[in-house]
Amino acid sequence: MGKQNAKRRCEWVPQDDPLYQRYHDREWGVPLKSRAKLFEMLLLEGAQAGLSWRTVLHKRENYRRLFADFDPEKVARFTDAKLEKILLDPGIIRNRLKVYGFRKNARAFLRLEEESGDFSKFIWSYVGGKPIQNKWKNLKEVPSETEYARSMSKDLKRRGFTFVGPSICYAFMQACGMVNDHAVYCFCYKQTAAKAERF
After folding, report:
1. Structural Rg of the chain based on CA atoms
2. In degrees, to the nearest 5, what angle opens at C-alpha 28 toward C-alphas 26 and 33?
3. Could you identify which of 47, 155, 156, 174 might form a hypothetical disulfide with 164, taking C-beta atoms 3.0 to 4.6 angstroms apart as the criterion?
4. 99-105 long-range contacts, CB within 8 A, separation 24+
């Protein structure tokens, strides 16, 4: 019984998807400082818009391959011809606005760093530089957006980013550990909280 409870996950994690389970167990909610990883998650959360994270997660390696392993300097220099070629690849979500949005966001990302310094420090400033520890008992309690996410969304849009609505920003915050939204019964909750303490 105890062993089974130790592996109890958030209820939204598919029981039949080992890749998704690994993502939940090892990545989701873990505080991220890495500029490159934050950029990657911002783009992938935007790619998810209107779809499921499961779809994006299973295409992540293809996105990494096609978008220079999410190097913002390289993606910012992609030509229209290169983006059109990427749009032919069945390994990603072939949505023109989203694909072109990757380049737009890379350029906005670099401009932001020129104006405001390190992206990691900028993005973490929305939560005062420290992860927010929530204590949700079930999925129904978890919000789809918060005031923090709405503020982030407004600022990023003003700075030229696209696919950064409040719900996308909140999903980004959850994924990057700016908030600990693991349910309290999930075996990852205490682990993530401990990592947040050391952040």
Report:
1. 17
2. 95
3. 156
4. 101/46, 101/162, 101/163, 102/43, 102/46, 102/47, 102/67, 102/75, 102/78, 103/75, 103/76, 103/78, 104/160, 104/161, 104/162, 105/42, 105/43, 105/46, 105/161, 105/162, 105/163, 105/164
Specify the CATH architecture of the domain 12-197: Orthogonal Bundle (1.10)
| Residue among 131, 180, 127, 130 at smallest CA distance from 149 | 127
Q: Which of 73, 23, 30, 72 is nearest to 48 (CA)?
A: 23
Length of the chain (residues): 199
Report pLDDT for 98: 98
What does the block give as tokens for 178? 């700016």
Domain boundaries, the chain: 12-197
Catalytic residues: 23, 45, 53
Helix (H) or strand (E) holding 188: helix 188-197
Each residue's pLDDT, cut to its tens digit, for the chain (199 residues) gives 344 444 899 999 999 999 999 999 999 999 999 999 999 999 999 999 999 999 999 999 999 999 999 999 999 999 999 999 999 999 999 999 999 999 999 999 999 999 999 999 999 999 999 999 999 999 999 999 999 999 999 999 999 999 999 999 999 999 999 999 999 999 999 999 998 888 8
- How many percent of the chain have pLDDT more than 70? 97
